[in-house]
Design the sequence.
């Protein structure tokens, strides 16, 4: 299913054998540079929990796919990069809010994304945290110009999954960003993957599914 809301095109997939009109947890999954919603949806192809996966499409065409912003993580103009990520997050946030209201949804959306989508995931968690409870950023980064100065009343959990030899989005700056968030009391974690680059290998995909299950499944009864 495809649609458009608040100026954002998106695809929608249902996992775990659920009915489309059922009340479901919502996962917003944001693709990376040059990718597409349809291709990124394959990350959730085997996910066994009933959920509604919303896959927004990047704002500009790029090499057969889509891009969220014009700058790369390696760009020397960090201020311009930070501004462009923030602008994309500001465009995406109203669409997420609208879809969470339009669809029968349990709880607040879980947001995840890879590369550009990972940067957007962290930015949304930090600057639009009221929309979500959990964020899983894969190969992402929050540039220092957008680091918050205080923890808000509602600070969603942030888990960053990152290969330690990532050449596209360096590991060190991501570690510094997470340490900054933790210093403010934010529930943030960095899970580093040794000898892994800018990719989502099977072991990382397993952790993504484990995290999603932990957020979706009801807590055990005492």
Sequence:
């Amino acid at each position: 299913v495809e649609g458009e809301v608040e100026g954002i095109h998106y695809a929608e997939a249902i996992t775990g054998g659920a009915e489309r009109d059922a009340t479901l947890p919502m996962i917003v999954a944001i693709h990376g540079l040059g990718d597409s919603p349809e291709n990124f949806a394959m990350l959730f192809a085997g996910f066994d929990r009933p959920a509604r996966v919303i896959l927004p499409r990047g704002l500009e065409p790029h090499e057969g796919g889509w891009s969220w912003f014009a700058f790369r993580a390696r760009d020397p103009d960090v201020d311009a990069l930070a501004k462009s990520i923030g602008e994309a997050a500001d465009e995406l946030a109203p669409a997420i809010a609208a879809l969470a209201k339009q669809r029968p949804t349990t709880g607040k959306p879980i947001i995840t994304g890879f590369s550009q989508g990972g940067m957007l995931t962290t930015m949304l968690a930090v600057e639009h945290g009221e929309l979500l409870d959990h964020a899983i950023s894969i190969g992402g980064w929050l540039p220092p110009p957008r680091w918050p100065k205080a923890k808000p009343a509602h600070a969603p959990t942030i888990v960053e999954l990152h290969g330690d030899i990532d050449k596209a989005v360096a590991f060190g700056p991501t570690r510094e960003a997470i340490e900054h968030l933790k210093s403010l009391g934010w529930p943030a974690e960095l899970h580093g993957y040794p000898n892994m680059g800018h990719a989502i290998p099977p072991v990382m995909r397993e952790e993504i599914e484990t995290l999603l299950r932990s957020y979706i499944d009801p807590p055990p009864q005492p």
Notes: The radius of gyration is 16 Å. The chain has five helices and ten strands. The helical segments are 37-40, 78-102, 116-127, 171-183, 202-216.
